Amino acid sequence: xxxxxxxxxxxxxxxxxxxxxxxxxxxxxxxxxxxxxxxxxxxxxxxxxxxxxxxxxxxxxxxxxxxxxxxxxxxxxxxxxxxxxxxxxxxxxxxxxxxxxxxxxxxxxxxxxxxxxxxxxxxxxxxxxxxxxxxxxxxxxxxxxxxxxxxxxxxxxxxxxxxxxxxxxxxxxxxxxxxxxxxxxxxxxxxxxxxxxxxxxxxxxx
Length: 206
Prior knowledge:
The protein is an alpha/beta fold and 206 residues long. It has helices spanning 2-16, 49-57, 106-117, 119-122, 135-138, 141-145, 164-169, 197-205, and strands at 75-78, 84-86, 96-100, 126-131, 155-159, 177-181, 187-192. It has a 7-stranded mixed beta sheet with strand order 2-1-5-4-3-6-7, with no helix packed on it. It has a single domain, classed as Glutaredoxin, CATH 3.40.30. Residues 1-18 and 21-63 have low confidence and may be disordered.
């Protein structure tokens, strides 16, 4: 019974901590924001520290504490068509990246713009943007921030209607949260928050 009440609350909490760059990121990206001024991203004056603390502790009873080591079964939905998208639909033989994001997150917008400008470097990997936000808020995200990603065969915008990501993959503390899986479906690396696009592309394509 507890799960039914905790997960909807968790979805709300995740949206409020989007782009939080005050907490420590995972793995090699702990210092990714050092020396970076993100005030232009529209997050000045937002204090997410209290919410982030709640986010980090409250859901531990029911949700994934660390990223899964291999891609789990899931059911997402293509934002443009509403067609279901599952693990079986992932194109085989290449790296697969899941980007958990919030359309209103300035850091998510910035990373997407940078990836769009460097699309030629990521054209041979699967890139799946995943969000629990209303599809209406996601529909024009690429049009606004990633024009070169829109309509590409290897890039898909997915709606997580049933909150599969936070229940089966991981609960991130910051957006964008990037998860890189190899052609064998095994987790290669992940990080939370924004970092230099050169590092992002290197991780995606390694």
